[in-house]
Amino acid sequence: MTENLVGPAALTDRAVQRAEVRRTAEKRSLRTATWNMTAGSWTVGVWYWAIVVVVAAVIGYLGGQTNTFEGEPIEGVVNGSVKFFLFVLGIIFPIGSIAVHVAAGGTRRSLIRAAWLTAGVVGVTFGLAAALLGYAEWAVFRSLGWLPTLESSQLDVDARVLGTVFLSQVFFCAVYWLVGAAIGMGYYRLRFLRGTFALPLLLVPVALVELAFQSGYFGKPFAQAVGLDDLEVLIAAVGGLVALAAAAFAFRLVTRSVAIAPVTT
């Protein structure tokens, strides 16, 4: 009778141990993947910001010497391209990480969660950098007598408020990074033809965040075309959350059962 009890108990203990090992490995891989993608984004991001600041300084210097922008509206260069930069990084990092991630004991689920966390961290940190540097650029241009406009918010009267700029940039940075990740993984999973057909659906979160915050050459005309160009900041934030949730769902959808391509050297 004792032997009959020992056998099932031993099996149960081994199952519990294996489950604990899997949980530990998944937590470790989650931390590692999040750190690698976040650190990778900022490693490249430092160079991006350095180049943007230099370009802004050159424009400011040459414009001041030639009076090119005297009395004319000028769009800042700091905020305009950051979301597109992060969109490209989002394409690169998850598909570049998935094979090594799974081989090291991670799971697709932990990679999905790592991408979500990375999008959040990147959104906040790059959004803060964009807001602070964009505000500094605006102040410098104003001191030169120019009329700068910020790529920040649908509310013109609030475009110079640092909090509004930060809020919009957080959503832009996070959504664009995550949509890039979804598109990259979509092509990885579906290959070129089917991935291209899926592209319009994967870009829906971008349309949503642009509609909510209405910046640049696309967001404002799009909002005006559909009659939503007078949204309040709170409603815009809700729209940003919807866009972020849609981007997170899209990435999960294309990643949760993706086949890992063999790594060749």
UniProtKB/TrEMBL annotation:
Keyword presence, Transmembrane: yes
Keyword Membrane tagged: yes
UniProt KW keywords: Membrane, Transmembrane, Transmembrane helix
Annotated TM spans: 46-64, 84-104, 116-141, 161-180, 192-213, 233-254
Domain of life: Bacteria
Designated name of the protein: ABC-2 family transporter protein
